[in-house]
Amino acid sequence: MPHFYVKPENINTNTFSIEGEQAHYLFNVRRFKQNDEIMLFDGKGTSYKVKIDLINKNKISGHILSSSYKMPGPTINLYTCIPKGDRFEWLIEKCSEINVLKIIPINTKRSIITSISNKIERYEKISISASSQCGRSDVMKIENPVDFKTACINAINNKDFINILMWENENVNTLKSLVPKSKLNGANIFIGPEGGFESEEIEFAKSLNIKTLTLGGNILRIETAAVVASSLIFQFIYGII
Fold first, then answer.
1. Nearest to 71 by CA among 129, 136, 9
2. CA distances from 175 to 39, 214, 216, 241 (A)
3. Which of 5, 79, 89 is nearest to 45 (CA)?
4. Any idea what DSSP says for residue 10?
5. 58: left (phi over 0), alpha (psi -120 to 50) or beta
6. The pTM is what?
């Protein structure tokens, strides 16, 4: 069944309403009609099965038939440098599909793009669209960039999280050796810029007990490393592999 976003403030106890661009899409593009049943999600973990009572190009309203709450399992926070061009949009879409909870862009000494303020609204729409496509009930958050050292300090304050920095020169640690047998609340993953982290940044991260890990002998693009690392660590925390 189709799965569409509705703003939380437009959900009441037994009713819902949708206006603007989303109403136009559902009415003119998807061609829904009165009495159709659809699925909505509020971006905060709740999905709703609803029935349409009124629909036109400007507004849709109806009543809620049932609801369910589901959030992602272990939290994956992705601290990543921003790739050039539209590759960051691809990263957002794919990380949303694999249940990354939050993306925090980081600025390192070799970062090329350091601001996303003029694109944050577009990135949020991509995240919402990805949740709609994959059946996710929440929306992956995308924060404003922070500098690398601040990001490291923030990460280590998460209780019962594993903190992992992807580094191509690591040749000892493996994911299996890093993930503890005790239950984790989640993971913070660090992905560097094109050209990699500088040695000073690696040493700073290690001084905070952030573990370094390689994804193999090949040098991966930022967006590839982000998706591969997030997926692998998520599976390890869940105990799938």
1. 136
2. 38, 9, 11, 11
3. 5
4. G
5. alpha
6. 0.91
What are the beta bridge partners of residue 38? 50
Read off the DSSP letter of residue 26. I
Which DSSP state fits 59?
A: E
- With both helix axes pointing from N to C terminus, report the angle between 199-207 and 148-156 in degrees, rounded to the nearest 10: 20
Burial 39-57 (b: 16+ CB within 10 A, else e): ebbbbeebbbebebeebee
What CA–CA distances, in Å, run from 90 to 45, 78, 167, 220?
23, 14, 22, 15
Task: Specify the range with the lowest mean pLDDT, choosing from 17-26, 66-75, 173-182, 219-228.
Answer: 173-182
**C-alpha distances in Å from residue 3, one per residue of 42, 170, 183, 216:** 10, 42, 32, 37
Distance from the first to the final alpha carbon of the chain: 31
pLDDT in tens, 182-220: 678 899 999 999 999 999 999 999 999 999 999 888 889
Asked whether 229 and 215 are in contact (CB, 8 A), the reply is: yes
Task: Give SS3 for 69.
Answer: strand
Tell me the C-alpha distance between 202 and 149, whole Å: 10
Site of tokens 């924060």 = 143
Residue spans of alpha helices (H) in 5-119: 20-24, 87-97
| Residue pointed to by tokens 């939050």 | 102
**Whole-angstrom distance, CA of residue 212 vs CA of residue 114:** 23
The amino acid at 106: I
CA-based nearest residue to 45, from 21, 80, 75, 25? 75
Beta bridge partners of 195: none
DSSP helix/strand/coil, 44? strand
